[in-house]
Design brief:
10 strands, 21% strand, 7 helices, alpha/beta, single chain
Length: 237
Amino acid sequence: MELSRYSVINDKNPREIVLLRGRGCAWKRCRFCDYHLDASMDEDANLALNREALSHVTGEFRRLEVINSGSFAELHPSTLLEVDRVCQQRGIRDLHVESHWLFRKTLPGLREHFANLGVTLHVKIGVETFDAAYREQVLDKGIDETDPAIIAAPFDECCLLFGLTGQSVESMKQDVETGLAHFHRVCINIMVPNTTPIVPDLAVRDAFVREIYPLYKDNPRVDILLDNTDFGVGEKL
């Protein structure tokens, strides 16, 4: 599968974004996600691919988002050194990355590392929903905590996943408001068809577009991806 691995986000929180590749996600159990398929055990090939993606970074906003099929801490040290180099050479001052709950204890060290380079690290966690029972029994996210404040403490931003059977206008709005209360930014993803057994619920998606989207589409703290390639990276159609 050929993927787009560099893009520029000009709307809210303008930044450049790269999709890097590592050995995959350590968790791999989220029932809705096949993102972990973008992986390779060939570290030399990963480094070459990641260098190419990072070569497009210009630093025009001094802000860069790095995503990969897993957590930032899972990327090979050779790729992490490339991220360091690009941040320094392109004058990046804010770096946005993703991390699973499992890797929360790596974050203080990462923050200190980038602070020493003059870069502020912003870490996003995929919570998907603050309904803990749904999150773990249906989605199998692997977050062994129910208190949103405790979940948020090591992180700065969160992802929510909507368009699923069992969700409602009320539950989706509550998730967004909870996210905004505990995190600096919220990224809403709408479920799209993929290779997993979890399928989009079109009625829930329509309810989101009709009732929720207008409430937050202009909120500078809320990113909304109606399609998972809306940031410009991912599968080429």
